[in-house]
Amino acid sequence: MKLWVGVTDNRWWSYLEHSGFDEVNFWQPSATPLFTNLPPGTPFLFKLKRPHNHIAGGGYFVKFSSLPIALAWEAFGQKNGAESLDALERTIRPMSPDPRAVRLEIGCTVLAQPFFFPRENWIPAPSDWSGNIVRGKTFDDHEVSGRAIWDAVRERLGGRQVEDGSMGPITGDPLAGERYTEPFLARARLGQGAFRVLVTEAYRRRCAITGESTLPVLEAAHIRPFSMNGPNRTSNGLLLRSDFHKLFDQGLVTVTPDFTIKVSRRIRDQWFNGKAYYRLDGEKLAVLPSEPRDAPDREMLRWHSEERFAG
Prior knowledge:
By secondary structure, the chain is α+β, with helices and mostly antiparallel strands.
């Protein structure tokens, strides 16, 4: 098993340690990924900077995305480790490759189920940790250092309950044996920020209905609402332009199980308008995820068409 030990800003850690958030954004001032080919579910550990040269917690990797800082704040809010967008920008901008950029793009590493150790349970940095490491390092639990780190983490997590989205409470090592990729994304209790990033990337940053690619007006819509036990999974999501998102949530637009767009006549009846929307009635979705597992769940679409759509 692989695990990543990331060099962590001490102020970010201090802000979040008592937050109780279900997810966090481990941001970086550069939009370049910390790593490549790290599968979802990989343990991601927080190694504090000096003078606290210890591992002080961690989480489980979900997705990396580069986002404008305003959208990162919109998606994660205080889960970015700051009290406001202004505070986040004051922290990041001086470290940015282009501090004067009007549109500041940052790297967002989304982590689920974060955990923070009290000071007495901090784990000393590995003996082979080089002072030249500025971003982080991959370890393998089949090697001495990696096994020692993960054993220490598991010991500190022992007895702690972690909520799992489909299996109920589990203890000890979260999602043991089924940590990576599809099993993790299917079973983990993902937050709203993770949902937004996963859906945005699955649809290649384009509206599923119109193909629109202006990122600030694109929103991740739940097919079955989260308030009605709809899961934060990509297959329960559509990336929609903001106006279509509102119409979809109100049942004035739907998508059938064969991915056909339907527009309710109530738009015309109640508001005497809607020509821009009726042009798409009967059309197929403009964009679908390239990965079949990310495609809209047909049963979820059937539910929305039958239970929510005001035809």
